[in-house]
Every structure is written in C-alpha cells, then in structure tokens.
Amino acid sequence: MNGPYRTGIIDVPWCSEPGEADKDHGARGYHPYPTMTPEQVAAMPVLSILHEDASVWLWIPNFHLMHGHHLTIAKAWGLKPVALLTWVKHKFGQGQRARGATEHVIQMIRGNVACLGSDTKTWFLGDCGAHSQKPREFYEIVEKLTPAARYFELFSRSGTRENWDLHGNEIGKLAIPVAAVVAAHEVSEEEDADQEAETKARKVRTPTVVSHKTNMADAVSGAFSEITDLAEEYRQIVDNATEGLSETQRVQTFGETADTLEGLQEPDVPSVIATIEVNYTITLPKRKDRGLSRAARMSDAIGILDACMEALDRVAETDVRHQAACDLFGELDAVKAEAEGCEFPGMYG
Q: How high is the pLDDT of residue 208?
C-alpha cells in the first residue's frame, strides 16, 4: 500500500443492526460478505498510512452513527471528526423502526487541513447503485474539499479512478465501463442545461439591494472595514493551506488578492468634508442562513467608494471644501483601481 496519504475514503463493511444479520430469520440486512464490528474497525492501523496532515472520510450507517461508534473509532485512529455529509437517496433501504433513505459520511482530520467547504451543503443527491455502491458525486465532493496528489479508498468495490489507490477484496465488482459513465454524464449535463435554461426563462433572479444614507467619514470607514476583513480571510486561507494545496493556482490567486488588499491604506477624511452626505446601496444575501460571497462583498465595498467619489465630485469649485474633496477623491480613486484589479474567486472553479 502506498502512502502516506493526505485524503482517503473508508467504506467499512459494517455489521447490521441487531437482529438483521441473522439470515435464518430472513432479515433484510443480511450482507453477502464478511462484516466488521466497531471494535474491529477501531483496531485497524489507519494512522500508519496517513500523512501528518490528513483527511479521512468514513461512511457510517444510521444505526452506528446513532450509537456514537464513530467517536470511539476516531479516537483510536488519532483523528478528530469535523464535518458530516448526508447522501439523500431516492429509494428505501433497510431498517427496523424506519426504512433508511440516507447514508452519512464523516470527515475526520489530523494536523493542518484547510477548510474549503464554504459553498458546500451538508447533504447531496446521488443515484443509488448496487448494495454499498457510493455515488460518483461523492468522489467529486471529496476531490474538491480535500484535494491531494493521490487518494486511497479502503474496502473499495469500484473500478479504477484516476489518482486513486483502491484496496479491498472486491475491487471492480461494481465497476461501470468508462464509456457508459461518460455517456451518462453527457446526457445528465444536457438535461441539466435544458432545465437551467427553462428555469431562467420562467424567472430571472436579480439581486436584492437596499439603500443606505450616511456621512463621508462613516462611508469610507465602512468600505475599508470590509476590505480589511476580506484581506484577513484570504490570508487565513493561504496560511492554512496544506503543502500540496498551497501550490495550486487558486490558492496562489488568494495570496495575490490578500497582498493587494493588505496594501490598501484607508485615507484620512478631513473634518471639513466628513459630514458630506453619501447615498449607496448594498446587496442582501439570497438566503438568511448564508452570507454573501467574497466577490459580492468586495463589489459592495467598491460601490460605497463609488458613491463617496460621486458625492465628492458634486462639491463646487467655489466651495471652501473643494480642495479637500479633490484630494480625497484622488485617494479613493487609486484604492478603487487597485481593488478592481484583484481576483475574487470562489473556493472552486
């Protein structure tokens, strides 16, 4: 087995709920392969194949999750649970008191693992295949959230996947011909595009904005407060990136943006023009439980600077405040040009 790995999946052949594994009773949960108890899972030497900075995705059924078996296993492996994703299925599974239509996977980490899931939901949809087969969408999520040079999967039943080392007694049992996967994916993309076009035709979603009125001093301060926050956030992403991830183009872009924003200096607003009225708008999040993207926040900050410059431009040449207004206009214009030259990518392409 190769290693050490930074990212991997473990799809344990869990034993069933009590009463389901007895095939003499014709239970639905009887598995056609050897299973493992939580104690046996905890005894696996997983730590021996992991990098000091690593992420492991452990699939766990509802029963074992409810009884907290993942906590004992994580402790035995020297890992810390940090996230839970839920696969929502379109059909019933097994279960005694309720038929399962979900599966869960827990992200466990050790060391320094970057947090790249700011735009990822805690649930996802995926087609159901054969028993224990995991959807293609999940592997794509893992590769996006925890990118690595190579990945591992223990107890794999899938076919080959680029940059993945598969380990298990039934590798390839659930493999689908590559041509079939590509064809299905192309059809799916066409259907998605048609549905997206239809949705846009029915209703064009436009951002919701609200108007604000304040004075020049507070407006400038508010814009630069947002710029400072964004600089700190991008710097934190860069500083927390793992060694392999820090070399990617996206993280390097984060670093360049942080460098530029950190170099922008908030100008002093002379008292003679501090009370000039500024009217500007800001964008509201589309959902109450989710904030604006960093690109939208930067756009709002630049919009406030624009509003300040418009207010300053209205100061007449005969006004005693004219020179101070011209000076501040020039400073804000330079800041705006620098900010507009930055890239504000999301976490993924």
A: 74
Distance from C-alpha of 220 to C-alpha of 227, rounded to nearest angstrom: 11
Q: Give kind and range of the element (H or E) at residue 253.
A: helix 249-262
Cβ(73)–Cβ(58) under 8 Å? yes
> Over the range 307-326, which residues count as b (16 or more CB within 10 Å of their CB) and which as e?
bbbebbeebeeeeebeebbe
SS3 303: helix
Residue 47 sits at the vertex; the CA angle it makes with 45 and 52, to the nearest 5 degrees, is 170
Nearest residue to 217 via CA among 268, 163, 282, 289: 268
Ranges of H-type helices in 275-321: 294-313
Domain count, the chain: 2
Q: Structure pTM?
A: 0.48
Residues 169, 222, single domain; the answer is: no
Of 72, 31, 51, 64, the residue nearest 155 (C-alpha)? 31
In a domain, 199, yes or no: no
**170 and 242 assigned to the same domain:** no
In a domain, 43, yes or no: yes
**Residue 190 corresponds to which tokens in the numbers above?**
């066409």
**Residue-number span of the structural domain to which 260 is assigned:** 208-340
Q: CA torsion sign, 293 to 296 to 302 to 308?
A: negative
Per-block average pLDDT, block size 10, for the chain (349 residues)? 86 71 43 78 92 95 89 95 90 68 93 81 78 81 91 81 81 43 44 57 59 92 92 85 68 87 93 93 70 84 93 92 94 91 63
21 inside domain: yes
Q: Across-strand partners of 87? A: 103, 124
Question: 75 and 132: one domain?
Answer: yes
Report the CATH number at residue 19: 3.40.50.150
Question: Do 31 and 85 have their domain in common?
Answer: yes
Count of residues making up the chain: 349
Q: Pairing state of beta strands 277-284 and 208-215?
A: antiparallel
Residues 113 and 261 in one domain: no
Query: What distance separates the 2 farthest-apart alpha carbons in the chain?
Result: 98
| CA gap 139, 154 in Å, rounded | 14
Do 47 and 150 sit in the same domain of this protein? yes
